[in-house]
Amino acid sequence: MNLKELYQEIILDHGKNPRNLRRTENFNKDAKGHNPLCGDKVHIYLKLNENKKIEDISFEGQGCAISMASASIMTDLVKGKEEHEVKEIVSDFLDMIKEKDELSNNILHKDDKTKLMCLSGVKQYPMRVKCATLSWHTLTSAINNSQEEINNESN
User: Fold this and answer.
1) How many structural domains comprise the chain?
2) Spacing of C-alpha 38 from chain mean position
3) Would you say residue 155 lies in a domain?
4) Which residue from 64, 46, 56, 48 is spatially nearest to 152, judged by alpha carbons?
5) 154 domain-assigned
6) Rounded to whole angstroms, how far apart are CA atoms 111 and 42?
7) How far apart are the C-alpha atoms of 146 and 148, rounded to whole Å?
8) Integer angstrom CA distances of residue 83 from 8, 19, 72, 100, 144
9) How far is CA 126 from the centre of its chain?
10) What is the pLDDT of residues 100-145, one digit of tens each?
11) The CATH number of the domain where 9 resides is what?
12) Whole-structure pTM over 0.85, yes or no?
């Protein structure tokens, strides 16, 4: 199996069988995001402990396979991480999806970086970048306790 096939398989798996697709019990931070251009919607739920570590994260929503796969992969990768690590992962992902060829953080293991890299191909399709980044911008909004709904039309 070549790398392109592996990437497609990961996206299809997470798109059809999203991880953490539920509402976190006793969440203490949340945010909503919407991409009006294609109809993607996401609601991110976080349970941060007193040390600002993500004890649980989940999402509810609907959208295209890229949007759902991205939210699924994101929730898998940031669960158990500290807030400052999550911010670094988000920043690195957004840089990669828009301009860089590789991820540069040292927080994620190689397998986790491969999962994220499977979304790198969307940069060839500007409208799909918005699908892939919606949940990530919404996660940032939840961490920052912003009450404004993320509208990916302008990102």
Assistant:
1) 1
2) 17
3) no
4) 64
5) no
6) 25
7) 6
8) 30, 20, 18, 23, 10
9) 17
10) 888 998 999 999 999 999 999 898 888 899 999 999 999 999 999 8
11) 3.90.1010.10
12) yes
